[in-house]
Amino acid sequence: MSHRRDNKEAARAERLRREQEARRRQHRHNLMRWGGIGAVGLIAVALLTVAVVGGGNSTSQGAESMSGSTASGPALGTVAPNFSLTNVITGKPVTRASIAGHRTLLFFSEGVGCQPCIIQTADLEKSQAFTRTGIRLVSVTTDPPGALAQAASQYGIHTPMLADPATSMSAAYGMLGHGGMQHPTQDGHAFMLLGANGRVLWHQAYSQMYVDPSQLLADMGPMA
Q1: Engineered SS bond to 174: which of 72, 105, 150, 154, CB 3.0-4.6 Å?
Q2: Which range marks the domain in which residue 40 is found?
Q3: Residues with Cβ < 8 Å from 168, sequence gap 6 or more?
Q4: Are residues 91 and 112 in the same domain?
């Protein structure tokens, strides 16, 4: 009888030990699970805080002013460099002389590899507020003409899109790696407003890949 009682006690003790170990494993799993969720939550809160604080600026978040830029392009008030590139929409050349006589916004972007950049051109073209300014839009990328023409057709773009695979214009205007992802061999995400006389009126680079047209006009201020 004593032997059977000892065996039962031993079995009961072993069962309790296993149950306790299982509870410990479950507790550790819960701590890791909720700890991970908490970390993600803290990161999300931090990012949201940065976005809210940054959104309070008078210019759009991610904007870099001309004075804070390291670009080697033309300074404000100077005449922009000459250029001659093919407009992939029409197949005809566009030069600085051909855009003279009216204000022109040059938009330099990463092009077909950046969907928001192409949408940026399409949205500016469709923006009634932008159209009312009388400013003409000319987009420039370092893409091959064929690829850029295909993207223009896909997104229904009709304003001039200039292919600059040799980076001649982009380099002269200081736009390589200027804004956006800052790739040194292609345009970033930047805008330059030229006056009717070809002089630089305004210039802004952005770290983000899309700027709402209304925000862009606000950033341009009285130049728009």
Answers
A1: 72
A2: 1-54
A3: 83, 85
A4: yes
What are the residues facing 82 on neighbouring strands? none
Per-residue pLDDT in tens (0 to 9) along the chain, 224 residues: 555 555 656 666 566 556 555 554 444 443 333 333 333 333 333 333 333 223 334 455 566 544 334 456 899 999 999 999 999 999 999 999 999 999 999 999 999 999 999 999 999 999 999 999 999 999 999 999 999 999 999 999 999 999 999 999 999 999 999 999 999 999 999 999 999 999 999 999 999 999 999 999 999 999 99
Give me the sheet containing 93-95, strands edge to edge. 63-65, 200-206, 189-194, 104-109, 136-141, 161-163, 84-87, 93-95
| pTM given for the model | 0.71
Structure tokens at 148: 């850029």
* CATH number of domain containing 134: 3.40.30.10
Q: How far apart are CA 189 and CA 181, in angstroms?
A: 8
Among 74, 158, 88, 98, which residue's Cα sits nearest to residue 124?
158
> Do 114 and 32 share a domain, yes or no?
no
